[in-house]
Specification:
seven-stranded parallel beta sheet; alpha/beta; six-stranded mixed beta sheet; globular; binds adenosine monophosphate; 15 helices; about 20% strand
Length: about 375
Amino acid sequence: MNTPTFASLGLAAPIANALNQLGYKTPTPIQSRALPLLIQGQDLLGIAQTGTGKTAAFSLPILHSIQVQGLRAAKARPLALILAPTRELAIQIHEDVQRYSAETSIRTTCIFGGANQHPQVRRLAKGVEILVATPGRLMDLEAQGHLALDAVQHFVLDEADRLLDMGFIGDIRKIEASLPSNRQTALFSATMSKEIRSLADFLLHDPQEIKVTPKQVTVEKIAQFQLRIANEHKQAALEQMLKQDDVRKVIVFTRTKHASERITKKLLKAGFSANAINGNKSQNARAKALDRFKRGTDWILVATDVAARGIDIQGISHVINFELPQEPENYVHRIGRTARAGSTGVADRKSTRLNSSHQIISYAVFCLKKK
Ligand code: AMP
């Protein structure tokens, strides 16, 4: 079977051109399956993680539909709503959509809590076709009358499992009640569960289902190791690891906000250029930390799971699990920060029961070597 190209999927020319400019040559598996279904107007349940190209899979059909119909949103009445669990993910989706729509006149904005609402309100008031939002701020601005959802034709829930984990189910139901019933809905989740199934039953109408298997991606592309270290020697071991030549761009994961701050302080004291990202930081501080990391000003990011979930940053050479995650899936999400589209490596992982005075630092290395 021939792999479809973006052109053969029939995307409007300005969107196909933008993809070309970005160097996207062929659709990823989730894209080649989801794009035709969504372009036809079907509802979709997609089981896929970050790194599979799912953002383009749900946003390209929305852009295509708005572009070919020449639609223009009324003030404060977006035509498409993309809901994401965290500010970081919302910002990232927004940036991706802006890239894909660079050659169109489609307007996009992003709203999230922890930041001044006025600039967000001003942008909404001018009119945007596509709105990317976290649930709390969305409901807040809607309640204040700065936004209405009655023109939404496309509704996407990204990382629905994380939205549920974070307790947003009530908000999702309320938001759904503000949307027109004849909209198109796509729900993406990294994992399938009873809760996701029942959310899908509630939100989706006669959906198509697509599942891509990212766990294989993890196994194929990432070399994984673990070190057994007495608790009190962990920081020294971390610093030792960071001095290795091949450690170029690193995320260090912790379980708690407090630990991420503590480790960062010690790293700074030891002369490393590190920054922490966690839920205690202001939106502005989080955005700055991410930006410095993306640009390479800082090469170490110390993060909690919630803060780092879904973040897509190119060129991360190592992920260090200074503290192992509580939930096994988070391990996969964490180490998935390394292997991004198109490169390969090797994998190996053992699990060992340890006595309580020892802890594991596990680390994942993204091998840049081609097979
Ligand atoms: P996502 O799973 O949406 O976070 O995407 C993961 C990464 O893959 C992002 O950096 C995208 O820019 C990139 N990407 C998405 N689709 C393609 C494609 N068809 N070809 C190359 N890169 C892609």
